[in-house]
What does this fold into?
Amino acid sequence: MSITDAKVRDVLATVIDPAINADLVSHRIYAGCEIDGADVLVKVELPTHAYPQALRRELATRIEAALQAAGARRVTVVPTVVTAHTPAPSDKALLKGPKNVLAVAAGKGGVGKSTVATNLALALARHGAKVGLLDADVFGPSIPTMLGPPERPPGTAGENKIVPAVHHGIKVISVGFFVDKGEAVVWRGPMVHRLLQQFLGDVEWGDLDYLVCDLPPGTGDVQLSLSQLIPIAGSVMVTTPQEVSIVDVVKGIAMFEKVEIPILGIVENMSHYTCPACGHRDEIFSHGGGKRLAQEVGTAFLGEIPIDTRIRFGGDAGVPIVIASPDSAVSQGFMQLASTVALKMAATVLGKPKKSPRLAVIK
Ligand SMILES: Nc1ncnc2c1ncn2[C@@H]1O[C@H](COP(=O)(O)OP(=O)(O)O)[C@@H](O)[C@H]1O
Ligand SMILES: [Mg+2]
It folds into this structure.
């Protein structure tokens, strides 16, 4: 029996993508084929640069096995990365270049939200994605300190355009660039809204796969304004294992649900401490709170990050651990977390039926 386009499609509709956990046809991973006798070249579109290498091989193996079982001889799988995203509806089209906005949130301050946002952004970039980082914590911007001196400082271009800074290869904007340290600014709701409008609409972000937003802790004006101004592809909630922090996270989740920001899951930071001298693992703040909480509120547990002096040092010295010690277990953990988060976002996007963006209503 000869192989045809239709046959290839039918076979691949039964193959499950190992990273997205859905079939290749309905989730638009399969992107066409070329047939030469019994030889088949299969084009696949991976929905994120953070698609793990091991799973890329597994995907190719599954495709080869399925097609060979259906009579194909040589099967070649050619992957390209096409970052999955949903075009913004016309009433939320302020942000031009970035494909996906990822919000990093927490119920309260000091749990490591900025640390997670920064290292997650850098990990996505290390996977090969084009990444921006928006410090939306206007009340306590810490991203400039965490990233140290920029490769390129922020600037302006033409009329009213802001050029983002570049740090370790990612584009960055923070209110900390424009306000002197120690200068107290009282941000009221309408000011926050206007500032975010500028940071989203007037910054030349360019084409980005991901714009990571470091939100202020809790639930307030920034969260509300962002959800009104742009579509947010997903959010992660950072928590520490103690109960107090967990109560705040529950409040945060409830607000996000109200303003329709999808919650991808929970990250437990400062999860445990492994003594660098003896290897003993100490669960300083107890352990497993994040996992329990995720179960209780019915969301995913995305991963845990240990307490590590190098994380704190990296944050203070301006060289985050993902850059300073790329091969460390902690950095590997951030790389994995970036994959998990990007794949979850992609699965949400690809699971929805493809439709064209809503047409603007002409008034
Ligand atoms: N896993 C960790 N191990 C060690 N220090 C950490 C860790 N996560 C955060 N820190 C440190 O804790 C402090 C607070 O973290 P930060 O990211 O600024 O919190 P938040 O943004 O939630 O207020 C910083 O000094 C940071 O370097
Ligand atoms: Mg912070």
Observations:
- The chain is about 35% helix and 25% strand.
- Residues 49 and 129 are 6 Å apart (CA to CA).
